[in-house]
């Protein structure tokens, strides 16, 4: 019997409760076209919850930028079908970016409504926290619409603290102290 093939760093097979297999892996340049194409499948509220404003389309420039993170200050993962990059449908994107001249990083996660509520966001967030800790950062934070209850509940369950943003009504900043 052969041992199971080891996956590269930051790669993980993830089985949804419905049995569907996804591969969580670092984003790659080849993901730009599938991500841009899948954007049309998102509902307006999904887009608003992730980008915090209405956005009609993801431009090729936006997709290119997302799929070329700076490895020194940014980290981005996708949850995709287990097909070659460029062919795989991407169902979720999670990214974090170190805020310049700080020991903080901002996160953002978007899980398609087709696979939301099945534990994928939690697993992606755990990986973002792990990355932030490898960078020896102090805090991981994200701005969440105050009516995005699933994201607020997920953040709270992982130890994030809520802080209201006074200058932006309707937004809640969730912050995780990485030194606790």
UniProtKB/TrEMBL annotation:
SUPFAM superfamilies in alphabetical order: Acyl-CoA N-acyltransferases (Nat)
PANTHER family: N-ACETYLTRANSFERASE
PROSITE patterns on file: GNAT
Alphabetized InterPro entries for the sequence: Acyl_CoA_acyltransferase, GNAT_dom
N-acetyltransferase domain location: 22-179
Protein name per UniProt: RimJ/RimL family protein N-acetyltransferase
Coiled-coil segments on the chain, per record: none
């Amino acid at each position: 019997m052969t041992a199971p093939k080891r996956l590269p760093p930051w790669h993980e097979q993830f089985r949804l409760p419905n049995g569907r297999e996804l591969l969580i892996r670092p984003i790659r340049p080849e993901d730009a076209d599938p991500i841009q194409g899948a954007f049309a499948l998102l509902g307006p509220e999904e887009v608003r919850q992730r980008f915090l404003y209405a956005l009609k389309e993801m431009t090729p420039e936006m997709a290119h930028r997302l799929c070329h993170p700076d490895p020194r200050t940014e980290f981005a993962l996708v949850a995709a079908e287990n097909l070659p990059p460029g062919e795989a449908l991407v169902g979720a994107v999670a990214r974090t970016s170190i805020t310049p001249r700080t020991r903080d990083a901002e996160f953002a996660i978007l899980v398609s409504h087709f696979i939301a509520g099945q534990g994928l966001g939690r697993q992606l967030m755990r990986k973002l926290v792990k990355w932030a800790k490898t960078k020896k950062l102090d805090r991981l934070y994200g701005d969440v619409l105050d009516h995005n209850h699933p994201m607020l509940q997920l953040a709270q369950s992982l130890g994030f603290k809520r802080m209201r943003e006074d200058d932006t009504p309707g937004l809640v900043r969730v912050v995780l102290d990485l030194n606790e």
